[in-house]
Amino acid sequence: MEFTTMFCLFASILSLFIFHSLLKFLTSGQQKPPLPPGSLGWPYIGETFQLYSQNPNVFFASKVKKFGSIFKTRILGCPCVMISSPEAVKHVLVSRAHLFKPTFPASKERMLGKQAIFFHQGEYHTKLRKLVLRAFMPEAIKTIVSDIESIAITSLKSWDGQLINTFLEMKTYTFNVALLSIFGKDEVLYREELKRCYYILEKGYNSMPINLPGTLFHRSMKARKELAQILAKILSIRRQMKHDHNGLFGSLMGDKAGLTDEQIADNIIGVIFAARDTTASVITWIIKYLAENPSVLQAVTEEQEAIMKEKCGEEKVLTWADTKKMLLTSRVIQETLRVASILSFTFREAVEDVEFEGYLIPKGWKVLPLFRNIHHSPDNFSEPEKFDPSRFEVAPKPNTFLPFGNGTHSCPGNEMAKMEILVLLHHLTTKYRWSVMGPQNGIQYDPFALPQNGLPIRLSLKS
Ligand code: HEM
């Protein structure tokens, strides 16, 4: 081939290449929106130190002030987009939920069980959700109100005259209620063993995920294995009984559910985890707020005394209908859920590149709906730092009150949680008084927001 022909060929290939690259650059520039504002901080570390060295809520609030309701950051090596407008959160959790899957650190999945409801999307999740909702819908939990009442009465008696760590004691209450709602009224076989293993498991939940003998994580994983074995034993005994079982266990083990033993165990452990510390933390906050707001405590006590007076003889036990009359007390629960916002945020992950409010959320980035910021924004709640249950006499604006999340993964245990709190408050306020011991202005994260030191109180019977 002649030199001129070779040169022409080379020149045309080169210009084609340049044209193609230019076109790609121009069109990509046109198609891809920018990343949200904010800083990704240092490589890998990102802004992890800033987040953990201060109250996380202060970190979020300062970012929202600087960048607005959607901003980017990097935490523990993961690029994240944080969102705090009610509409944007609705998009992520409800309208475009299929684009944002739930995401947890691998160590947490291993500990709770990979087959647990929280970690899934699609068909398997829908099936589990139906089974879990069936066990916790009002029709199902109505039947255990009086049994929960017995647990509340016994627990309160055991604290009478004592200086107690409120959170720790409420964890015992909510654990016992969780076992009742899971296994039904039948004698809970292996109760003490379940308790022992679960308590070891939870100790390692926030530990470094190093599975070597001697580590907390290793001990937790061993306890988890034992828990699964105990649950398998209960399953085999219950299958031999050949009658219908109620509670979550009954719902999950039904033939129609078609779940394996492992799937059942993972979901039982997962539900105990979801139900226990959350509810215990909310009760702890309520006890603190009631102590700090004597007029609210007085009003709650009067409402509960009126319900108590209506009951006589056989009818003395509390019923579901009674809990529905506790309107003021329910508003105290709502206001506590708002002010304390025990779950400050949740996690999702973009399953593909998503264009969102004019920004790009790249595939694999985490997305964090900031519940606490929504609950504490003056746009949504006037004087947001004030504890004022009466604000719930009027329904909050849509998508501004999200203590139980929203959409496909919203909390299926919310009715159960409210009912067990109401039952405890009925007996607490009508029969006991309490005073908070020591200074109580701090918040700790365990990982749920909690009053400092678990709120030590002294509780005694009213004379
Ligand atoms: C006051 C106490 C409680 C609070 C504040 C609470 C809050 C939440 C929130 C915010 C979510 C959604 C998380 C997300 O979207 O990522 C959730 C999910 C969940 N909660 Fe609760 N919860 C409470 C009590 C309970 C109770 C008592 C149970 C069980 C009886 C329960 C079972 C669950 C389960 C199984 C899920 C996962 C649902 C799914 O992935 O489809 N929770 N909870």
Automatic annotation (TrEMBL):
GO terms for cellular component: membrane. One of its GO terms (molecular function) is iron ion binding. This is (+)-abscisic acid 8'-hydroxylase. Gene3D superfamilies: Cytochrome P450. It comes from Camellia sinensis. Its cofactor is heme. Belongs to the cytochrome P450 family. It catalyses: 2-cis-(+)-abscisate + reduced [NADPH--hemoprotein reductase] + O2 = (+)-8'-hydroxyabscisate + oxidized [NADPH--hemoprotein reductase] + H2O + H(+). Residues 1-29 form the signal peptide. InterPro entries: Cyt_P450, Cyt_P450_CS, Cyt_P450_E_grp-I, Cyt_P450_sf. It is found in: Membrane. It is an enzyme of class 1 (oxidoreductase). Pfam families: p450 (PF00067). Heme binds at residue 411. Keywords: Heme, Iron, Membrane, Metal-binding, Monooxygenase, Oxidoreductase, Signal, Transmembrane, Transmembrane helix. GO terms for biological process: abscisic acid catabolic process; response to abscisic acid; response to water deprivation; sterol metabolic process. Its EC number is 1.14.14.137. It is a single-pass membrane protein. Pathway: Plant hormone degradation; abscisic acid degradation.
